[in-house]
Design a protein that fits this description.
The protein is an alpha+beta fold and 540 residues long. The chain folds into 5 domains: 4-89, Zinc finger, CHC2-typedomain (DNA Primase, Chain A, Alpha-Beta Complex); 100-215, DNA primase, catalytic core, N-terminal domain (DNA primase DNAg catalytic core, N-terminal domain, Alpha-Beta Complex), CATH 3.90.980; 231-352, Dna Topoisomerase Vi A Subunit, Chain: A, domain 2 (3-Layer(aba) Sandwich); 358-403; 419-537, DNAb Helicase, Chain A (Orthogonal Bundle), CATH 1.10.860. 48% of the residues lie in helices and 13% in strands. The chain has 24 helices and 15 strands. The protein has helices at residues 4-13, 16-21, 67-75, 79-89, 100-121, 123-131, 136-141, 150-159, 164-170, 231-241, 250-258, 277-283, 295-310, 326-331, 336-341, 346-356, 363-377, 382-396, 419-430, 435-439, 451-458, 465-471, 481-503, 510-528, and strands at 27-29, 32-35, 47-50, 55-58, 64-65, 145-147, 173-176, 179-182, 187-194, 197-205, 213-215, 243-247, 264-266, 286-292, 315-320. It is globular and about 95 Å long. 33% of the residues are buried.
């Protein structure tokens, strides 16, 4: 773990303009810099970098943060990786503390050296990989190894003074009736990386074990339902091409990378799940599902395509036919690129595969197909349901009205800024020593448009995008102290006058109503004399 003192030193040195300017061209505009936002498509610059506040903010998509967050988002990397990258940029050496997680990663890394040595020494294991068509450079790139007997792995742990219990916690070993034993035995090993650190292993038998491939169980470092194999090798290509290809296995990834398809990853013995989606969202890439064309592969592809369509991902599906997986096709020199180019979009794929399961010339079968398709359509984003229903109805040869898609369209908030309220918020942000005085009189309820933003200011939530929309808007003027007081007074007069108008229509005791109106008028009179005042100031 990086020491906090080291992080603070880095933060004190990095400059937001330098950091962002390394990735996108910036143009000076007033006291800030502007650019086309790198996080969404736009033709007019709405991305602002503030050197005085050391933050960036996009008025279009709401992206905001400091230099570290910018590197995280633009590179799609973790917080520690961003710190490392910035430290290299500024030639700063980060200092680390020793903790259990880093000791664990060190154990797994050294274990891989042990596995690699055994691969070189084991002719059967090495020849298996060569016969599958792997080059020596590919074997080295993916750090493939070989797991020998359980006893040899236990002896290795003892030799390097690694506790066996630590190996159990990391998934290297398991406990049975006869004690501790290695999880991977007589298998080709595939190290699984996260942030370029090994967090787990998978293994492929070379002894005809009924379980051809196995992975580590989940540990504190590894969750197979969230992890993509090969992402550490594929990330740069994915970001460059804006496309990610997801396959079913280790060898598919390795062979496709060797053939030049370096944007390929694989799930780890599981179907694509919701837990994978956060990683895919960060990559901002089209997704191609590339699975085997057998029944298991088709069913997995339907589930994956459905999940991706429901969550508004672009991309499509490729099925490998004739009993070939991608690794087989690459080894035989077949043209895989053509298949990827001819992918079928997620929604049409799902609908066609559903229909293919039924004999729609049979009314009962057609009804079942209709019900399954309808259920799928209703899980899709509302705005695309109607067009999908029309296409599905045409394939089923039925009336599209039978799908009864929802018509309620989400309401988009198009509220504009209130210049007077926004100016008060910006001034208080720039001059925090005024906040205590003003907050005593100015309740967020007094604002018509920006009550939420004023509340954010009072709570010191200074990085909130809603607040930054005001703070970095060059069209919003910062007021001097006198202008601030006058602006607050004007808003408070309006606020209390509205309270009086509302009271006139409320059903309440006449004496109580009259008393409240007098109190509000007393406050208004004080405000009109240029004094800050609020309701409890009244002694009436």
């Amino acid at each position: 773990m990086i020491k906090q003192e080291s992080i603070q030193q880095l933060k004190s040195i990095i400059d937001i303009v330098d950091v962002v300017g390394n990735y996108i061209p910036l143009k000076k505009q007033g006291s800030n810099y502007t650019a086309l936002c790198p996080f969404h498509s736009e033709k007019t610059p709405s991305f602002v970098v503030s050197p005085s506040k050391q933050i960036y903010h996009c008025f279009g998509c709401g992206a905001s943060g400091d230099g570290i967050k910018f590197v995280m988002e633009i590179e799609k990397i973790s917080y520690p990786e961003a710190l490392e990258k910035l430290a290299n940029m500024y030639n700063i050496k980060l200092e680390y503390t020793s903790n259990n997680d880093y000791q664990s990663l060190d154990i797994l890394d050294k274990l891989n050296g042990f596995y690699i040595q055994h691969l070189t020494a084991n002719k059967t294991a090495y020849e298996y990989l060569r016969k599958r068509g792997l080059h020596q450079s590919t074997i080295e790139k993916f750090a493939l190894g070989y797991a020998p007997s359980s006893q040899e792995q236990i002896e290795f742990f003892n030799q390097v003074n690694f506790p066996l219990q630590k190996g159990v916690e990391l998934g290297v070993f398991a406990k049975g009736d006869r004690g501790i034993y290695a999880r991977l035995i007589d298998r080709i090993t595939f190290p699984i990386f996260h942030n370029n650190k090994i967090i787990a292993y998978g293994g492929r038998t070379i002894s005809n074990h009924p379980a051809k491939y196995i992975n580590y169980s989940n540990t504190k470092l590894f969750n197979k339902s969230r992890t993509f194999y090969g992402l550490n090798f594929a990330r740069d290509k994915i970001l460059k091409t804006k496309q990610i290809i997801i396959t079913e296995g280790y060898m598919d990834v390795i062979m496709l990378h060797q053939a030049g398809f370096e944007n390929v990853v694989a799930t780890l013995g599981t179907a694509l799940t919701k837990d994978h989606l956060p990683t895919l969202n960060k990559l901002h890439a089209d997704v191609i599902i590339a699975y085997d064309g057998d029944d298991a592969g088709i069913n997995a592809a339907i589930k994956a395509a459905s999940l991706l369509a429901q969550n508004s991902f672009d991309g499509g599906v490729v099925l490998f036919q004739e009993g070939y997986d991608p690794a087989d096709m690459i080894q035989e020199g077949r043209d895989v690129e053509v298949l990827f180019q001819n992918k079928e979009a997620f929604i049409p794929f799902v609908i066609k595969q559903i229909i293919a399961k039924y004999d729609i010339s049979n009314p009962l079968q057609k009804q079942k197909a209709y019900e399954q398709i309808k259920q799928f359509i209703l899980t899709l984003p509302i705005l695309i349901q109607e067009s999908v229903a029309r296409d599905a109805a045409q394939l089923l040869q039925i009336d599209a009205k039978l799908f009864r898609v929802r018509k309620n369209i989400p309401i988009i908030n198009t509220a504009k800024k209130d210049i007077a309220e926004a100016a008060i918020i910006k001034t208080l942000y720039q001059n925090p020593h005024y906040i205590k005085e003003i907050s005593e009189y100015l309740d967020p309820q007094a604002f018509h448009t920006h009550a939420y933003e004023l509340e954010l200011l009072y709570q010191e939530d200074f990085q909130n995008p809603k607040l930054l929309d005001i703070i970095l808007d060059e069209n919003i003027k910062e007021l001097d102290y006198k202008e601030l007081i006058n602006a607050v007074i004007a808003l408070l007069i309006r606020y209390y006058q509205n309270k009086i108008n509302q009271l006139k229509f409320q059903n309440m005791n006449l004496f109580e109503k009259s008393h409240k109106i007098k109190k509000y008028r007393f406050v208004i009179d004080k405000l009109k004399k240029g004094e800050l005042a609020y309701e409890s100031d009244s002694t009436i």
